[in-house]
Write a structure and sequence with these properties.
Length: about 475
């Protein structure tokens, strides 16, 4: 544990707030004259000493605005504040042993925080203030809350910071943010079942719901406490914007958004931006006639997949699909195709691996099968698509009508990373004309999105 000492001479000590009555903690004097640091500078200390606990033993005072609320129960003994009411640059989570803090430190309330006696450290991947217990940050006792946190009379209108999921980074943690043109994944909103925010059988502590973009941005997770008073509400089916606190999940595995209330999800109507789907369902078995197959045995390790009619097209970024061989817990199936953007420096990676053209008119009972695996998908994802109007030219790739093969199963982030998952026998018999099947990877070299997908044992058969 490190102590951070500032040799500051203060003419007036920070003693305006009575310790025994938080309701009367409005500042009697203009505490702005006592502020001698800001939240951005405090976070600078945090990142300079990452992994350590910093304890403050001198009066350091900063002002901030409250952007969390525990009124709906989605925050529990965590007060999230940011440095400005508009275009914030820094935010911190303050752990305090107080229930219903929204009655005193309500959303938008300007406050002053005295750091003397508090400690700053990492809690579940988030910069957090509290009192130190060993190497952990614990709650500020309620009897001491008013010593460290003083209310100002101002209750500001907070303007959420508009961002994209591709922008998620450590410096945006604990900020009140807004994401536009998003919707819940269609599997969560029907038509046969509409999920709740956090009341499904497998929800423990938090319900985690996948939110997708209508503008090509990355998907992200919205988290809701199972103890919140809106946990049993059904997810809205439309699209629009949502706003909340950007933070990390409990295990510090991914970025996530927490709402103050369901009113912060502003999805209107049933208008959605779901991609077009193509489905004939699943077939009972593969056919006896092989139209195309590849297990990548003939490819060269760590070289772009080529030959056998494959089209390996990089739409964005710099990484194509490559052949690779691996052993151990995440072994390849001999030799496999892999897409991995880590180390590329690419802010966005979209790469296509497309089969040769298949004639659906001269065959019948066509079936597609393949296997996929991940080395942790993170926020990246893989789609399998079909087009019967693409002319095979790279410059016309995005002009064609590509539809998702929704019956195909693709390995997910929650599948064991060493397992190879079967797609199932994907029926293509209702396709007509001549077409292509494409495997499209979307990811990034950004830490949350640089997942790995592997592909193998691809076969298209007919009767």
């Amino acid at each position: 544990m490190k102590k951070y000492t500032y040799f500051l001479s203060l003419m007036l000590l920070f003693s305006c707030a009575p310790e025994d009555d938080v309701q009367n903690s409005d500042a009697a004097a203009d505490l702005s004259v006592l502020t001698n640091t800001d939240l951005d500078a405090i976070l600078g200390i945090f990142y300079q000493n990452k992994g350590e606990v910093v304890t403050f033993d001198k009066d350091l005072i900063f002002e901030a605005y409250v952007v969390s609320s525990d009124e709906a129960g989605n925050f529990y003994k965590e007060l999230v504040v940011q440095d400005q009411k508009k275009d914030p640059k820094a935010g911190v989570n303050i752990k305090l042993d107080m229930n219903s803090y929204y009655q005193f430190y309500n959303f938008g309330r300007k406050i002053y925080v005295n750091l003397k006696g508090l400690s700053l450290g990492d809690a579940n991947g988030v910069p957090t203030l509290g009192v130190v217990q060993g190497k952990q940050i614990a709650n500020i006792p309620q009897s001491r809350v008013a010593v460290h946190i003083t209310r100002d009379a101002e209750v500001a209108t907070i303007t959420p910071k508009s961002i994209k999921a591709a922008d998620f980074n450590d410096r945006l943690k604990n900020l009140y943010v807004k994401l536009d043109d998003v919707q819940f994944n269609k599997m969560l909103v029907g038509p046969h079942k509409v999920f709740t925010y956090a009341s499904e059988d497998n929800d423990q502590y938090d319900g985690e719901r996948l939110v997708e973009s209508c503008t090509g941005d990355f998907p992200f997770i919205l988290s809701t406490s199972t103890y919140s008073d809106f946990s049993s509400l059904k997810l809205p089916a439309g699209m629009g914007s949502l706003q909340g606190i950007l933070t990390r999940d409990y295990y510090d595995k991914f970025y996530t958004i927490y709402l103050n209330s369901p009113a912060d999800v502003k999805f209107t109507g049933n208008s959605r931006c779901d991609p077009k789907e193509f489905t004939c369902g699943l077939a009972a078995a593969t056919g006896n006639k092989i139209l195309f197959e590849d297990d990548f045995t003939g490819q060269k390790n760590n070289k772009p997949v080529d030959g056998k009619g494959w089209k390996n097209i990089v739409q964005e970024g710099s990484r194509p699909w490559e052949a690779y061989t691996a052993t151990g817990a995440n072994a390849s199936l001999g030799r496999s195709a892999r897409m991995r953007p880590a180390g590329s420096g690419d802010s966005r990676s979209i790469s296509w691996l497309i089969t040769p053209r298949i004639n659906f008119d001269t065959n019948s009972g066509e079936v597609l099968s393949f296997k996929t695996s991940t080395s942790f998908a993170n926020g990246s994802f893989l789609d399998v698509l079909i087009s019967t109007d693409w002319d095979g030219l790279e410059e016309n790739l995005l002009k064609a009508d590509w539809q998702i093969l929704s019956a195909a199963y693709i390995a997910q982030n929650n599948d064991f990373f060493g397992d190879w998952m079967s797609s199932g026998q994907v029926d293509l018999s209702c396709a007509t004309g001549k077409g292509y099947v494409a495997f499209r990877y979307t990811g990034s070299d950004l830490p949350y999105y640089n997942g790995v997908y592997e592909l193998d044992e691809i076969m298209v058969s007919a009767e």
